[in-house]
Specification:
The structure is a homodimer.
Chain A (H helix, E strand, L loop, with lengths): L5 H12 L6 E3 L3 H10 L3 E3 L11 E4 L3 H9 L7 E4 L16 E6 L16 E5 L2 H14 L3 E3 L2 H31 L8 H13 L15 H10 L4 H20 L1
Parallel strand pairs in A: 1-2, 3-4, 4-5, 6-7
Antiparallel strand pairs in A: 5-6
Chain lengths: ~250, ~250
């Protein structure tokens, strides 16, 4: 496992549970690498020159912007190597080995929260059928939701995930800050957040849309914008998203 | 029940379940009023001049922008009247009756999806202690989560709800459209949406933030913006929300 961050940690633990033998963890920070290595009973290194050549598979799970730099330091004699990025094209790996692929789990990972891999879509891609079959088998050992996805589809999935997950979570943060400033508990809107996410499991999101914008209730929107003048950094987000919802409705 | 839309329908059914006697439904559209009336075994009217004077409580659940107009047509001789709006001040009711209040269930309601009121926060307010006690008792008959909230706090709650629910749902819609255009199923990101909403039940949202923006991964952001040039109507939302997340992080 090359990388000791969120994705790598959750993957390593999931593989460890299914009895896979994790030989070595590489992490740039000693404490991250050691802590993950301890939890899956593997060795660890903080320098890629010490990378084992004994592994059957190398999983590179590092931020996209250092991936190329990390790959340049890897010497694995054509062993199978994959990255876990949602956005980086598979072919960046072709300089590192003749056998390569992608192993992208479509989920949001936080160190302090366990996830059950069973339902997580794992999107795989490989340079040939043999490697694809290997990754397919590996992915199926942790997930019941394995998809073969090419690099172009994968970036689309990642963008959709950024909207639906990262940006939604930021909207929760805004709600939290607004409530906190008024001494109201964020707990009050937790059932609402839960229901909103549950509703789209069975309803197309556009059919589940509620609120002042979709009703074109300009009076409420104006009242909200007035209150939001205390929060100029959030007011423009309220304005742009309300406008988009109204325009979206008119376009249909 | 004055109104036969989403909020009114869900409330009427919840009250009916607890054995409350719903005498009359008013709806501007005959089919909506009749259908709701049938499901709770009540009468219905489509003209407010026929409003019963026999009820103990009148619940006005209509869009904010027609509330004043509806109230002007109501003649109930100082019976207790409440509205269910998140944003309208309680005192708009004082011309209609000497006994008034607010009964605001903080949830997103869709006609085709049942909700369990038990965990829904019901925010109440009243013009005096007697009426507040009456509303408190009524609210507690359907919910275990009853809060006394004044008009100013209520609009804050409503704004937070718009961000966390209405806007998040719109982001799900964007994800859905992007995936659809690329022949990818929205089902693929449903586990992610579920996990994102679940995570904040136990984690402060800012601590749960993941994705390219919070990592300041400009390379991925650029790659996404390039792909999003096919979706100009969504590209600016990606840009503004990414910037806000990056600035938010720097501010802390």
């Amino acid at each position: 496992m090359i990388g000791a961050g969120n994705v790598s940690s959750h993957l390593a633990k999931a593989f460890d549970k299914t009895g896979k033998n994790i030989i070595q963890i590489f992490g740039r920070k000693t404490n991250y690498a050691r802590s993950l290595a301890e939890s899956v009973s593997s060795g660890f290194i903080t320098n890629l020159s010490k990378l084992t050549t004994e592994a059957d598979l190398y999983i590179v799970s590092v931020p996209d912007n250092i991936l190329t730099e990390v790959l340049e330091k890897i010497n694995i004699q054509n062993k199978l190597i994959v990255h876990t990025s949602g956005t980086v094209e598979m072919k960046v790996l072709q300089k590192t080995s003749e056998n390569y692929g992608v192993f992208y789990p479509l989920q949001t990972f936080t160190k302090t929260k366990n996830v059950d891999f069973k339902n997580i879509p794992v999107c795989i891609e490989a340079n040939n059928k043999i490697n694809l079959d290997l990754l397919d088998e590996l992915a199926k050992s942790i997930s019941e939701n394995v998809k073969h996805v090419n690099s172009e589809q994968r970036v689309t999935l990642h963008i959709a995930a950024v909207f639906a997950c990262n940006f939604s979570n930021y909207l929760y943060t805004i709600a939290d800050e607004i409530l906190e400033k008024h001494d109201l508990s964020f707990d009050l809107i937790k059932p609402l957040i839960q229901e909103t996410a549950e509703k789209i499991q069975t309803h197309k999101p556009i059919k589940a849309q509620t609120g002042p914008a979709i009703r074109e209730d300009y009076q409420t929107i104006e009242a909200h914008l007035k209150t939001l003048s205390k929060f100029p950094e959030f007011k423009d987000i309220y304005e742009i998203l309300s406008k988009k919802i109204i325009n979206h409705k008119k376009k249909k």
